[in-house]
Amino acid sequence: MISIRTAVQILGTVPFLLTSMMAQTWSLPKDTTVKDNGPRTYRFTVDYNVANTRGEVVRRQRLTGEYTRGLPGGDVVWNNVTDAAVNSPTDPFPAADKQTYMEGFRYHHDAGDMLKPEFFRQFPPTATMEKNLVWDTAMFEVFGQEHFAHLKLNQPYQFAYNEEMKLPGLGSFTNHDVTLVWVGNSQKNGKQCAVIEYRAFFNPLDINGAGIVLKGRSNYWGMIWVSLATKQIEYATLYEDVLGELTLPDKPMQVTDVFRIGTFEPVRGK
What is the pLDDT of residues 200-238, one digit of tens each? Predict the structure, then answer.
């Protein structure tokens, strides 16, 4: 039989052991690389809602595309990209139009020239939303897969500050203050995942191309579920609110608000 003093000493170590176990559990693997076990296809759906300053939606547009990574040589490819629009807040979308110029659009997954005009040479000048599919997917992968070494539980990590990007044929966008936060772990698609929040507010936007002039600001945010075992993205969300002064050809300037909602999820592959 142990003495009362020994029992107290044993019990006194329990909080320390629990704290140590929690400290080991609540940390991200620092040296895990992204594991591609063959091709994996994602469906990316983004809804654009165009509204006035009172929040009255006057137009909705839906883009959907399939993005496949894990191809030989580290390539990725886009297929089945469609676009549907309706000038109503509630009417169903009509049949979507396939964007044939994006069928088979292929490049290396970490292409460093996404902001060069020649990268989108097969795209029409007005294909701004389709370019956003490519840029947003790259954003999910950079934010979700490349910063485990910097992320600590519930501690904001500043990814970028006042970083201006020149958009080919469109103008410029400045990431005012991009912040990543590892907010915890969860399960998605039966896999243990780190959940990473990203947010960037008060980002200046100056667009002058594709027949429009838009000067304003963007707020965007979302969540990314990243497998702890493979670093594959298991799910991601995107929300963005753009408020600005819009000028269209032969029309007076008007203040407009564009709110978009996106979901990115695997549909095929491991």
Answer: 999 999 998 878 899 999 999 999 999 999 999 999 999
- Measured between alpha carbons, how far is residue 179 from residues 150, 158, 162, 201 in Å? 12, 5, 12, 9
Q: Do the domain assignments include residue 256?
A: yes
Q: Which domain holds residue 218?
A: 31-268
Give the count of domains, the chain: 1
- The pLDDT score that the predictor gives to residue 125 is 87
Paired sense of beta strands 254-268 and 40-51, if any = antiparallel
Q: Count of CB atoms within 10 A of residue 22's CB?
A: 11
What residues are paired with 222 via a beta bridge?
A: 198
At residue 30 the predicted structure's pLDDT band, cuts being 50, 70 and 90, is confident
Domain annotation covers residue 58: yes
pLDDT tier, 11 (very low <50, low <70, confident <90, very high otherwise):
very low
Residues 6+ apart with CB under 8 A from 131: 120, 123, 167
Q: How many CB atoms lie within 10 A of CB 231?
A: 21
The residue with tokens 């020649």 is 118
Q: What backbone torsions phi and psi does residue 260 show, to the nearest 5 degrees?
A: -125, 150
Specify if 21 maps to a domain. Answer: no
Whether 4 is in a domain gets the answer no
Q: How many CB atoms lie within 10 A of CB 132?
A: 20
pLDDT at 212: 85
